[in-house]
Amino acid sequence: MNHLLVPLAIPLATEPGNRTLTISLFTAVVAVTLYITWWASRQNKTAADYYAGGRSFSGAQNGLAVAGDYMSAASFLGISGQIALYGYDGFLYSIGFLVAWLVALLLVAELLRNSGRFTMADQLAFRMKQRPVRTAAATSTIVVSIFYLLAQMVGAGSLVGLLLGVKSEGLKAAVIVLVGALMIVYVTIGGMKGTTWVQIVKAVLLMAGTVVITFLVLLKFNFNLSDLLGSAAAKSGKGEGFLQPGLLYGKDLTGQIDFLSLGLALVLGTAGLPHILIRFYTVPDSRSARRSVQWAIGLIGAFYLMTLALGFGAAALLDTAKGSAVETSKGNVASPLLAEAVGGGAGSTGGAILLALIAAVAFATILAVVAGLTLTSASSFAHDLYANVISKTKPTEKQELRVARFAAIGIGAVAIGLAIPAQKLNIAFLVALAFAVAASANLPALLFNLFWKRFNTSGAVWSIYGGLSSAVVLVVFSPVVSGNGDKSMITGADFHWFPLSNPGIVSIPLGFLFGVLGTYLGRDKSSETRYSELSVRALTGAGAEGAAKH
Amino acid sequence: MDEEVVRERDARAYEAVHDAADFKELKRRYKNFVVPWTIAFMAWYLAYVACNNWARGFMDHRIGGSHINVALIFGLLQFVSTFAIAALYGRFANRKLDPLAHGLNAKYKRERRR
């Protein structure tokens, strides 16, 4: 999954008929999502509608949307591809991604739902000084979302080229512009309601597609897991080692500490990802927020279990040797090619249909995730920065929403502008970095605010800026940026001094430490007075924002 | 009504709920559930990560001559424990937290009307 974003193209749908089918399905995905957006736009009236979908989604609906927001193309194609190439170790990302939801369920989702309104900053601003806290939280929200967005958009460029079988730099750039334009349309016109429904549709498509392929793979092995694993191990040429830890992570002590560091960032990052946090505002009460996370855990867990069958199925049924399509695409075409293989093989109608379906699912997946990220940054810009910091007077709801829409266009344009040149760079580390920043900057501030009475404005500001900058600085001076040959973002230079690729093991404790230091150095005790209010509101929902009434 | 007056009235209502015995009980129940379970699942997850790094011999052990090994079972158990804790918390919150929270929420509304 770390390698999802390497630009390349292997002709998959070279048959003209196949390509027409794939393009038709892509067009259908775009048409359906645009229809949803148009429909949603007619229901958007207030700020609560635009930012939080009127808080009227049910737990199950929001659970699907959370799953749709969370499972990126990197998890869909990347994890199964990594399993296909590296066996057991490819599976490890998904476990951190899943267990992380318990942090969200037990410590964050419901309390945030009750004490915030539209953005992550709302919850901090409840008992802190508005301007510094909102500026810090908005900075971190926008930085995390842009990192994640860039990774998704560069991935989209190479992926669509890959799925259509076109090997042109121009096409990749065109795809990035198209994806960027679509996400701007979803967000400016559909707001949270439109984005949520796009994510729900995507989650249903993704689950359905994965169930079908998993069933067909297991059918080939008579539902015998041991046989599937055995065939994969034999075909991989690595024997039982393919099913054991060690092919990808922890080769030496540095690698082992790096893996621990990655594990920490994955498990603690999810509950600090702004685009996940704002999803909890779309439900009417804390009970539905709880149901959302339970649904999300069920869906995401089931999905990752199925990627196990997809990955080992691809290893057993496809050519994954050096120079093969799966190997040269770093595993990204494993799932689509597996779909073709279990559908009847290359050249068969069944194979062509399944291949095109999975390609369309991957496309829908990209669109839903980038829309969620753009909405998150635009909301934070308008609601936190514009309304509470930049504007001298309190803007009206209408003015604030207009700014949110313009911010979505601006963020979309920036993302397109950065993604096109970034295609040539190896920026796969950005997803892991987004998790590390979320865990180092956002999670300490959120948890301290909820559970530590003494926590104050300077503590919040210190933990956010301190966690954010330590994660980013450590990565800049790590082997993922320089000094690791072709695998680094900048080849031909070496200015790294931090040995690990994942900063979490250092930056997460630093984020918490900065929070404590800032609190005591700040000395300000005014935020203690509203702590009892915050805790009553967070735990009981008293005075919390309810569902919008139309 | 004046904004300042509303603020003060709300603050008094929150204070009243905060001082209620039921609120202290709600807080106690919540903490008594989430603190030990958070420690438990984090320790269990980190144990899994650590075994992948430093207990390879144990993880490589095959079960009953099949291709399924301890590493895979340990990984699958992380899924099982996540599903189980999520279900357990849901049950606990529905039964032990929600009734208290609803009562306190009603108290807040009554206090605001005074």
Automatic annotation (TrEMBL), chain A:
Transmembrane segments: 20-41, 62-85, 91-112, 133-151, 171-189, 201-219, 259-281, 293-318, 352-382, 403-421, 427-452, 459-480, 500-521
InterPro entries given in the database record: Na/Glc_symporter_sf (IPR038377), Na/solute_symporter (IPR001734), Sodium:Solute_Symporter (IPR050277)
Keyword Nucleotide-binding recorded: no
UniProt membrane topology term: Multi-pass membrane protein
GO CC, any one term: plasma membrane
Lineage: superkingdom: Bacteria
Primary localization class, coarse: membrane
Any one Gene Ontology BP term: plasma membrane acetate transport
Subcellular location: Cell membrane
Pfam families xref list: SSF
Keyword Glycosyltransferase recorded: no
Single GO MF annotation: symporter activity
Keyword annotations from UniProtKB, A to Z: Cell membrane, Membrane, Symport, Transmembrane, Transmembrane helix, Transport
Stored NCBIfam families: sss
Family assignment from sequence similarity: Belongs to the sodium:solute symporter (SSF) (TC 2.A.21) family.
Name recorded for this polypeptide: Cation acetate symporter
Organism encoding this protein: Kribbella sindirgiensis
Automatic annotation (TrEMBL), chain B:
Chain segments annotated as coiled-coil in the UniProt record: none
The organism's place on the tree of life at top rank: Bacteria
Nucleotidyltransferase keyword on record: no
Keywords, ordered alphabetically: Membrane, Transmembrane, Transmembrane helix
Residues annotated as transmembrane: 33-55, 67-89
Pfam families recorded: DUF485
Name the record gives this protein: DUF485 domain-containing protein
Species: Kribbella sindirgiensis
